[in-house]
Amino acid sequence: MEKGALFGKYEVGRLLGCGAFAKVYYARNIQTGQSVAIKVINKKKIAGTNLMSNIKREITIMARLRHPNIVRLYEVLACKTKIYFVIEFAKGGELFAKVAKGRFSEDLSRKYFQQLISAVGYCHFRGIYHRDLKPENLLLDENGSLKVTDFGLSAVKDQIRPEDGLLHTLCGTPAYVAPEILSKKGYNGATVDVWSCGIILYVLTAGYLPFNDPNLMAMYKKIYKGEFRCPKWMSNDLKRLLGRLLETNPKTRITIDEIIHDPWFKKGGLFKDKGPEFEFQFYHDCYSDDLDDSLKARFVGLFNESYNPFVDGEKFLSAMSVDKIIASIEEAAGELNVKCRRRKDCVVDLEGPKGDFIARWRLTS
């Protein structure tokens, strides 16, 4: 790709990375000066494959996601020969490059793992399953915060087979794939993501893979049987958590909700049991479901940075002050052309353009 102004809007710079079908460049928004990354997909290389449907699904999924630990999609551009994803620029690069230099301390591993679980839990709450979580798909921003990227293999609830309630597409990276995917009998998208998170946590704290073999089938056999050992330097709490994350039976494997209550996981502050509980209700018969979804997305994106956004269905927690939370609700409502009215007892009502009631947001401590 030649350097220069793309669509008169982005000044394209150095190559950041490349794959079989796409290249990623650093770029700068000419008007705002904002640094971005632009993923360039060559249409000729994906012609005659099923990758176009994957790309369309990835666009749809990323457009729905707004979370501090997920790379944000700003816009999609296209011409006759190429598709351009304009996404958030993660200055720190891949987490893989950092861990390749040596294993992390448990405290640093916990920080990244907490951020990963926050992002994955948010996706699951939205009915989105990544299915290819690995250190290469985890980036770091300039502040060292983790960012999940590459939703090219992700799935949504619409892809679940109604007859068994499971996904069936074989996908993922061999060393990170869950045993139930290998069984080819269908799998739950949430449990396979949890397995991959377990592999990632092991790699961060051990410095190597729990299941590894030069022979692919031999490695799959180890995965299927759950044959791994934790190094002696790991704490007992971490070993117990890894044992639950890498449980071969998906029905008894630890869930996201159980992870956030795990003793090892809770250390470090991100998921402390404090702060007001932010509870809200939606009335779908009063306005459009699309707007309801937009409000949910805006809300979760605003507040899960400081607390767990996905416990108990539609109850959310935040360590922010009540005034800051309500101010953020008002800001999000304004962007969606929705009226926001404060009531007594920390209640906020949202109304449509015609004064019709949309939703009630209630803060409880």
Explain the layout of strands and helices.
Elements: E1 4-6, E2 10-18, E3 22-29, E4 35-42, H1 43-46, H2 51-64, E5 73-78, E6 82-88, E7 93-94, H3 95-99, H4 106-125, E8 128-129, E9 138-140, E10 146-148, E11 155-156, H5 179-182, H6 189-206, H7 216-225, H8 236-245, H9 256-259, H10 263-266, E12 277-282, H11 289-303, E13 315-317, H12 322-335, E14 339-342, E15 347-351, E16 357-364
Antiparallel strand pairs: 1-2, 2-3, 3-4, 4-6, 5-6, 7-9, 8-11, 9-10, 12-13, 12-16, 14-15, 15-16
Helix pairs in contact: 4-6, 11-12
Task: Kindly describe this structure.
The protein has 365 residues and is an alpha+beta fold. The protein folds into 3 domains: 85 residues, 2-Layer Sandwich (Phosphorylase Kinase, domain 1); 174 residues, Orthogonal Bundle (Transferase(Phosphotransferase), domain 1), CATH 1.10.510.10; 88 residues. Helix content is 33%, strand content 22%. The strands form 4 sheets. It has a 6-stranded antiparallel sheet. A 5-stranded antiparallel sheet has the order 13-12-16-15-14, covered by helices on one side. Strands 7-9-10 form a 3-stranded antiparallel sheet. Strand 15 and strand 16 form a beta hairpin. The longest helix is centred in the N-terminal third of the chain and has 20 residues. The radius of gyration is 21 Å and the shape is globular. About 6% of the residues have low confidence.
